[in-house]
Amino acid sequence: xxxxxxxxxxxxxxxxxxxxxxxxxxxxxxxxxxxxxxxxxxxxxxxxxxxxxxxxxxxxxxxxxxxxxxxxxxxxxxxxxx
Amino acid sequence: xxxxxxxxxxxxxxxxxxxxxxxxxxxxxxxxxxxxxxxxxxxxxxxxxxxxxxxxxxxxxxxxxxxxxxxxxxxxxxxxxxxxxxxxxxxxxxxxxxxxxxxxxxxxxxxxxx
Amino acid sequence: xxxxxxxxxxxxxxxxxxxxxxxxxxxxxxxxxxxxxxxxxxxxxxxxxxxxxxxxxxxxxxxxxxxxxxxxxxxxxxxxxxxxxx
Lengths: 82, 114, 86
Fold this sequence. Notes:
Low-confidence stretches of chain A: none
Number of helices of chain A: 3
Number of strands of chain A: 0
Mean pLDDT of chain A: 85
Oligomer: heterotrimer
Strand content of chain A: under 5%
Structural class of chain C: mainly alpha
Helix content of chain A: over 70%
Mean pLDDT of chain C: 86
Largest interface: B-C, 54 and 50 residues
Shape of chain A: flat
Structural class of chain A: mainly alpha
Distance between the termini of chain C: 51 Å
Helix content of chain C: over 70%
Largest sheet of chain A: none
Strand content of chain C: under 5%
Number of domains of chain C: 1
Low-confidence stretches of chain C: none
Number of helices of chain C: 3
């Protein structure tokens, strides 16, 4: 059961990483990075490391997304849908 | 008792799946948002309640209640903020929608200012 | 019997994560992708609770609590960016 979940989430993680490096849209790349750390946290939890999973959830999924979006706001004056 | 909890969990997971299917199949952002918020909120509440009913001897009932309260509090906040931002960013509704009250209110307000 | 039903429920929730991820790949605007991320987060909280049940450890529920607190901050950040807020 655990191996099925790890396999599916790993494949989704690889696809999200591919989307993050291939897309031209910077906001989509930031959201894909958030998805990667979300799924990485679940996989850490399944590999019996709840403290690492908690840190990854707080820093990877919360803090880096905000910092990336703040930087994107600084370097570009608000093009919306690109 | 354990079988009852398992059935409640199965109902919650089916609601989660239907919410994800709505995110995939609905025509525009706002329909996707209402499918992906209401259905997944109820689905996750049923999922957590089912596990804590069927597994009640673990002493984890208080933590389950805390998680359910967090889901109830935070999920509508994020959805409401995102819907408002999408409307003011100018994302169009689908062509089959019939009414847009927020745009009507904006037009009335601009008319009063003039 | 009950264990089999729990496993089936977890696999259905996992299929929900995959469907939301397809919308995240396809989505034409950034708001679609943020909605897909929101759905994936909620389903991941349920999956974490299932893993805590499956491996019989109550301490895993703390990760779900942290997720419930932190997860909406990223969505609100994306929304404030779309609204030209931050």
